């Protein structure tokens, strides 16, 4: 059976991997050249620790405080755009205790299974993207935030995760020679990471060798319909026909799907990263500077710092004030680093495809029998890539997804 996937990000490639394993004849179409998208420059975490969606109690009041600070890590651009307004309203509505309590078990199961699947993929493909499995340290500078993280740790334990709440001295022992200035940390021991740039490039080559066809520099502009089916993709190049179609277009998904009459809410959540090739010392674990919302990942090629969430449409421009805010926060946690060492480093920007409730959209649309949507993974698209690919392959084979997908419905906001 012929399947065409639109989008060659983590979600598109993982879908291709499982579809190819099941004997589907797969073509991936992307308007880019395959060397960059949101799945390349990110922090590379596989993080079961993040089973609480972004839209959660506390984010609204914290977010409002951040909105007035040009160096803060979170920002929603005030705009008259109707889709952004609907997104914001649904984000606000999703940030309640009862909604989050429903979302946590689903995310936890998906993150946990995906964490196992990525190791299977790496062992099967023999790709070496510098996989690290020493967990994630949430460094805290204030006791109040450490107490809040300890509550998350308690919830994570209830979800079956292995977590320690550490004093600063205990945390320091995990990274000998790496100095920290914190009150303590929470160590989520199930978390892992890799270098996404290596993985994405090597995964493409692996899939190509397995027979997956890539059509880069080709924009999908619409579809040809035949009753309740899509019969072909209209592209900037030739028409592409297939039996099944997968939409893995990341932050561009609402733009693409809305023109087909499939209403979903997705906003780009812009984030930045920069990689210090020769850090004064290299930590052995990944970490997050909790108050500053900065991710720190030891990668092939250096130490990567990533952060900020600017909900700002599809704009990829770099805002120097936020980069400054991000860089300023690092020496406050890591005294061996100074702000000057980041000067002149190239900054990468990517758009996280954010749904209002922080849960992905995975499944078929009501309008078309053979159109599968896999998008909206927000800050977790790397972590959830493998499980999403597996679910897409199940749906393509007309199987019932093995995960309860009632909260993942594509048209839940239509
Ligand atoms: C700073 C930062 C740090 C992050 N850190 C992490 C992390 O540590 N762990 C984690 O799990 N996640 C992380 N994320 C989130 C993660 O990177 C994303 O969720 C994920 O990459 C989304 O993958 P995707 O395949 O959906 O989209 P993308 O990677 O954006 O791919 C979508 C592709 O679709 C193509 N496309 C769109 N429209 C069309 C069209 N009409 N025709 C043809 N092609 C089209 C685009 O060109 C693009 O290549 C981070 C993100 C950022 C920005």
What this model shows, in words?
The protein has 414 residues and is α/β, with parallel strands linked by helices. The chain has helices at residues 10-21, 59-67, 82-94, 97-125, 143-158, 168-173, 196-209, 253-258, 320-333, 385-396, and strands at residues 2-6, 25-29, 45-46, 74-76, 136-140, 163-167, 184-188, 192-193, 213-215, 220-226, 229-235, 240-241, 244-247, 267-276, 286-289, 294-299, 302-311, 348-354, 361-364, 371-375. The strands form four sheets. Strands 4, 5, 6, 7, 14, 15, 16, 17 and 18 form a nine-stranded mixed beta sheet that branches. A six-stranded mixed beta sheet has the order 9-2-1-13-20-19, covered by helices on one side. It has a three-stranded antiparallel beta sheet with strand order 10-11-12, with no helix packed on it. Strand 19 and strand 20 (371-375) form a beta hairpin. Helix 4 (97-125) packs across helix 10. The chain starts with a strand and ends in an 18-residue tail after the last helix. Flavin-adenine dinucleotide (FAD) is lined by residues 6-12, 29-32, 37-39, 42-45, 219-220, 248-252, 256, 271-273, 295, 306, 350, 352-353, 375, 377-383.
Task: Enumerate how many helices there are, as a single number.
Answer: 10
CATH topology (fold) name of the domain at 51-78 and 131-192 and 267-354: D-Amino Acid Oxidase, Chain A, domain 2
List bound small molecules. flavin-adenine dinucleotide
Strands, count: 20
How many whole angstroms does the radius of gyration measure? 21 Å
Largest sheet: 9 strands, mixed
Low-confidence stretches are none
- State the name of the first-level CATH class of the domain at 51-78 and 131-192 and 267-354: Alpha Beta
H and E order: EHEEHEHHEHEHEEHEEEEEHEEEEHEEEH
CATH homologous superfamily of the domain at 51-78 and 131-192 and 267-354, by name? D-Amino Acid Oxidase, subunit A, domain 2
Q: Gap between N and C termini, in Å?
A: 30 Å
Q: Averaged pLDDT, please?
A: 94
Helix content: 25-40%
Shape-level CATH architecture of the domain at 51-78 and 131-192 and 267-354: 2-Layer Sandwich
CA-based shape: globular
């Amino acid at each position: 059976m012929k399947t065409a996937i639109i989008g060659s990000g983590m979600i598109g490639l993982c879908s291709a991997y499982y579809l190819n394993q099941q004997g589907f004849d797969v073509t991936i179409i992307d308007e880019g050249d395959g060397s960059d998208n949101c799945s390349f420059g990110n922090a590379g975490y596989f993080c079961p620790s993040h089973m609480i969606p972004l839209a959660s109690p506390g984010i609204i009041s914290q977010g409002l405080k951040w909105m007035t600070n040009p160096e803060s890590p979170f920002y929603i651009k005030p705009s008259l755009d109707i889709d952004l307004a609907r997104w914001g309203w649904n984000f606000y509505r999703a940030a309640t205790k009862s909604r989050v309590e429903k979302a946590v078990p689903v995310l936890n199961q998906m993150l946990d299974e995906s964490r196992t699947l990525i190791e299977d993929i790496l062992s099967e493909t023999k790709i070496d993207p510098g996989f690290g499995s020493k967990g994630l340290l949430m460094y805290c500078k204030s006791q109040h935030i450490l107490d809040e993280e300890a509550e998350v740790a308690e919830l994570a334990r209830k979800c079956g995760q292995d977590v320690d709440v550490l004093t600063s001295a205990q945390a320091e022992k995990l990274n000998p020679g790496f100095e920290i200035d914190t009150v303590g940390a929470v160590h989520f021991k199930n978390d892992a990471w890799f270098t996404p740039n290596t993985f994405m490039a090597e995964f493409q080559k692996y899939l190509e060798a397995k027979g997956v066809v890539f059509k880069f520099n080709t924009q999908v502009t619409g579809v040809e319909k035949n009753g309740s089916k899509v019969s072909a993709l209209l592209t900037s190049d030739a028409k592409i026909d297939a039996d099944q179609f997968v939409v893995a277009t990341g932050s561009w998904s609402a733009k693409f799907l809305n023109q087909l009459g499939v209403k979903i809410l997705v906003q780009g959540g812009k984030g930045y990263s920069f990689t210090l090739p020769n850090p004064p010392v290299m930590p052995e674990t990944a970490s997050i500077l909790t108050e500053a919302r900065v991710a720190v990942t030891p990668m092939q090629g250096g130490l990567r710092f990533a952060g900020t969430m600017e909900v700002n449409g599809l704009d990829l421009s770099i805002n120097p004030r936020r980069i400054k805010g991000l860089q300023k926060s690092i020496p406050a946690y890591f005294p061996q680093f100074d702000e000057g060492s980041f000067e002149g480093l190239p900054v990468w920007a990517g758009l996280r495809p954010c749904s209002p409730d922080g849960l992905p959209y995975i499944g078929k649309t009501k309008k078309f029998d053979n159109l599968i949507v896999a998008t909206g993974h927000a800050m977790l698209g790397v972590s959830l890539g493998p499980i999403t690919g597996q679910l897409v392959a199940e749906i393509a084979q007309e199987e019932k997804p093995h995960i309860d997908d009632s909260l993942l419905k594509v048209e839940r906001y239509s």
